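Lab notes, practical 5.
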Amino acid sequence: MTHRRLYAPVYTKDHFVAFEIDFQTKSFRWGDSLNSKQHALEHFVEKLQWWFRACFSGEFRNDGPNLPHDHQKDRTSCALFAINTIEHNVFGNTLGVAHPARERARWFFLTAESQINGSAEPSHTNHPNTNALLLGERAFHGHAGPSHANHPNTNALPLGERALKLQAEERTCIQEKATIFLEKKKQEKVQQELAETERIDCEQIAHGKVETIRMELSRLERESHERARQEKEGLEMFHQDPWAHVNNDIEDIQMRDVDACVTSIIPPDQFMRLKPAEELNYPPPAPSSLVPVASSRASPLTSASFAGFNRMNHPPADTTKTRWFMERLGQFDIPDSVDLKFIKHPDYPSLRVVSHGRLVVLKRTEVRLRLWRAQYPDVPLWYLGIHCLSRGLDWQVFAPVSRPVAFVSRPAHLNVRHAPLYWKGDVFHEYHTWIWAMLNLPFAHRFLSMGGIAWRIALHYGPESLFAATLSGPSTDACLHGHVHRIGGDIDDMVTDHDVALLLGATDDTSLWPPVDIFERYEKWQGEWSHEWEAWFQKRLQGIRSGDKDLFLTRKRWIKHRRRYTAREYDDPALVGSEGHAAGLCAEADRLYPPMESYAALVY
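Output from the prediction step:
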């Protein structure tokens, strides 16, 4: 990094002082060869601070007369000592002027050269002015002894030419020093760039190794848990019915508990229970969608065939209550804003949906749940989780789970703290590598249930099994390893601030996507993903594919990116689309249409 300093001689009250201004530390200091009292510079310092306030948004720190300098022993050499102070601090020259009088004479000849060359030819007589110049020249060269003013060779060479020759030699010397100085700086810069390139390469190699190790450890951990789950389920089946076949499908164990619930949604003539042989023809969910290891009466899972997903394709009920909601909601039920191909064409014929637990959603989601329940009264509340996760609404269920029967070691990926992306490197490659690895971990389905911008990013970069994993409840990271958020005895998966920062592509001071709290307050965001937001998202994806680093914005620029609700507007019941407006609708609906169920719990 370049350290910017400004050096200059300052003239004040018949005296020169060397000044240094450091723009890196926002400070200044000076070196006074006469050690004058500080009040002699007060007027200049006051003007200097005014300039700092006007141009640099504040005063600089006054470090006083601490600039390294030498002390003059006369009253006339302050300019020479000021220049020497600057040369010492810039080029490293020796402090002090050994012969001030001789140096003043040299400067006189250098500055008076043009006037001397422009005068008449010098006379061979002892003109008093010529003698004075020759004496000054001898003083400059340090000659002793009698004067040579009458020597024909000395008078034959014009004095101005001799001064010009000395000036040319001095300029040559200065140019050589400057060339050496610039060459040295150039070499230092090249070395710094090489070191920086090497450091970036080492970091990328290290990051790649870490991610490879993390993914391998996660794979081994999932395989270990899956084997433990299968062994425990086999033991439970043996104790319940010693004559039961060990390879019976796992859904047979819980089918008695859920048959009534499934039948209430799907008429008997449309529901066909799959046999074990038929189910083996379909691939199971990916490892990232693992459900809790142990079956538990405290955390029942309802299994419905794919036919059940078409249960809401009939016309919705048209009642006074449904019309009341639709007249007051500014935006709702936008099913085709994102192509959810893995919902329309799943890789396996059934999904396991959590049907019992504590439901925690924003009011903008709750008001839509109230509308859908009024339109489809025969569909249970837990079933609407599919609806919410298809539209970018938040859907968090805290489910009751039993404690693991044996100790299971904590996987390595839960102890990793993600470092910010390195903006100057191959930041997009690094972002894609990290986010793909993270979204394949068991806890990653929590991003999908957050809704909003986190939901859309996870939907784009995550595996297709992520949707099924979100519906199936807490993962092994929560059930076995305690990586959870809790409400009483109920749990759900947890994502840390570092996980969210990685999802958003955060660097030290910027991010690729808007922070969640800022996005939630954009006026155009009313709780449900829309075609307008999808067009915005796809445009940014095009920029990412082209490597446009201008997409990284600071938090301040994200705030100005789109108009946002103020804190008062966000909670204002009269502002359509805000969280306050949704809360007001829920309260008014309770008064006009007293609810027959709770929207804070899932029951079956």
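Observations recorded by the TA: The CA atoms of residues 246 and 514 lie 51 Å apart. The longest strand covers residues 5-11.
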